[in-house]
Amino acid sequence: MSRSISPFRLKRPCGNCPFRTDGKAIGLMAGRLDEITTEITTGDGKPFFCHKTLSGEPSDERPYTPGDRDAICAGALIYQLKVGRVPIPIRLAFSLGEYSYEDLMAHADTIIEPSDIT
Q1: Domain ranges within the chain, ordered by starting residue
Q2: Cβ neighbours of residue 1 under 8 Å, at least 6 residues apart?
Q3: Which of 95, 44, 99, 96 is nearest to 71 (CA)?
Q4: Which residues contact 56 (CB under 8 A, 6 or more apart)?
Q5: Cys staple from 49: which of 16, 70, 79, 111, with CB 3.0 to 4.6 Å?
Q6: What is the pTM of this model?
Q7: Does the pLDDT at position 2 exceed 70?
Q8: Number of C-beta neighbours around residue 45 at 10 A
Q9: What highest taxon heads this organism's lineage (predicted)?
């Protein structure tokens, strides 16, 4: 029997997370970071998956269908915490002890501020 991989396993932003402030962020098309931050902070938001873990497929119904190896992007999650718009699955992960607010926010200074988005 194969063991499932937790989507909540990333506890800090990766070295080239698109949400980083230190100039090491992966390059995105112009305006794409604005689109992502809007997507993850509107309504109940939605989880954003780390680009290094993507294992799903695009589909006709949605731009991306998550795969079984995808992990929540810690940088996006920290950004969502800064904005106060945390998706319901992440709230559940906090209540189950999958995440620690304090541990995540220890990396907050490496992640963009909401005021950085134009």
Answers
A1: 32-116
A2: none
A3: 99
A4: 64, 65, 66, 67, 70
A5: 70
A6: 0.86
A7: no
A8: 21
A9: Bacteria
pLDDT tens across 57-102, in order? Answer: 776 776 677 788 999 999 999 999 999 988 888 899 999 999 999 9
Give the gyration radius of the chain's Cα atoms: 14
**Phi, psi angle pair for 20, to nearest 5°:** -70, 155
Q: Tell me the pLDDT tens digit for each residue of 31-59.
A: 999 999 998 998 777 788 999 998 887 76
Q: Are 87 and 102 in contact (CB under 8 A)?
A: no
> 115 is written with which tokens?
């005021």
Contact 71, 9 (CB under 8 A): yes
- The amino acid that residue 46 corresponds to is K
Q: Which residue has the tokens 């800064």?
A: 82
Distance (Å, whole) CA 86 – CA 42:
10
Write down the residue that tokens 């319901």 correspond to: 88
